[in-house]
Specification:
The protein is mostly helical. The protein is 44% helix and 11% strand. A hairpin with a 4-residue loop joins strand 2 and strand 3. Helix 8 runs parallel beside helix 10. The protein is elongated, with a radius of gyration of 21 Å. Pfam families: BTB. This is BTB domain-containing protein.
Length: 321
């Protein structure tokens, strides 16, 4: 296996041999520079350069990844960042209990981030023959492949309380404090952040595709051990949630994010630790439980029990008991 800290030039990267990925059930083909992908993680390095049949055929099938998510991964592989889709704008905001009306795509609503022109120029200014880069630093994409997966510790597993009895009548203050702690969380990642998150400004703006784009990319990074990308996704999604205005019509956006995380994420570890993405989402929901608790789909999540209900009650009990 190649040394992931080996220095390479941009010329070496761009002139590396080509590798074809067939993505999704439709096996959509993507032809990429092998060194760009191999440098993102040991998993991809072994797939491209190891002794597997894929390395011999210079092709691989990844049917569990959708093409849009893989495109974001490739963008990260080449430039150390990724672009999320635009939100959608709903034609009718008269929705009952957060249910979705018909949606139409709009170009008027831009992506949820701005990319600094300085960032682009920094990537393009280096000469191909003289620019020496390190696989640990170039483009901010693969700084520390040996780092442990990012995760916040879960609160200790406890039985769901039948009744929560606050010690005082300051529930609102406690919720504000919980939200303040959530907002101050820091998800570190390697690379310079030159992107500002654009918040929602209208109840008509559906952020479900934005949230799911982050979550699906996190799943790819988690399964393929691209740990720096996991860190970046957590950072970007956290900033998006912090700036998200939780209009009553938009409760379903957060519920859809939670459903995805608990349908695809890794279950709670034996020591009680939960997946970093799940931890972020369930903590956000706990901060906003007074509002989200009124949503029918949220109640369905709770009624279903399982990991989500357990994680949720663990956090709420810590705050109120």
């Amino acid at each position: 296996m190649a040394d992931m800290s080996t220095k390479i030039t941009f010329e070496e990267l761009i002139q590396s041999d080509l590798f074809t990925f067939y993505i999704g059930e439709q096996e959509k083909s993507f032809v990429v520079h092998s060194k760009a992908v191999a440098a993102t993680s040991r998993y991809f390095d072994r797939l491209v350069n190891g002794g597997l049949s894929e390395a011999q055929s210079r092709s691989a099938k990844l049917v569990d990844i959708d093409p849009d998510t893989f495109i974001r991964f490739l963008e990260y592989a080449y430039r150390g960042d990724y672009t999320t889709p635009s939100c959608t704008e709903e034609a009718n905001t008269a929705m009952e209990n957060g249910s979705k009306s018909s949606e139409v795509n709009t170009n008027a609503i831009q992506n949820d981030e701005y990319i600094s022109s300085d960032d682009d120029s920094a990537h393009l200014s280096a000469g191909a023959s003289t620019s020496t880069v390190t696989a640990g630093t170039w483009g901010g994409g693969w700084s520390n492949p040996n780092s442990a997966p990012s995760a916040y510790s879960a609160y200790g597993a406890v039985a769901s309380p039948k009744k929560l009895k606050p010690k005082s009548k300051s529930t609102k203050k406690e919720q504000r404090n919980s939200r303040a702690k959530f907002d101050k969380r820091e998800y570190t990642y390697t690379g310079d952040n030159l992107i500002s998150i654009r918040p929602n400004t209208s109840a008509r703006q559906n952020f479900t595709p934005v949230f799911l784009a982050h979550a699906q990319l996190y799943t790819l990074a988690d399964m393929r051990m691209v740990y720096p990308l996991k860190d970046l996704v957590l950072h970007r999604l956290h900033k998006t949630l912090v700036g998200f205005e939780l209009y009553p019509e938009r409760l379903g956006d957060v519920v859809e994010l939670a459903k995805y995380a608990y349908e695809h994420g890794e279950d709670r570890a034996v020591d009680g630790r939960i997946d970093a993405l799940r931890d972020m989402i369930v903590n956000y929901i706990a901060c906003e439980m007074k509002v989200l608790g009124k949503h029918a789909e949220f109640r369905n999540l709770m009624d279903g029990g399982g990991e989500f209900a357990g994680d949720f009650w663990d956090i709420v009990s810590q705050e109120l008991l």
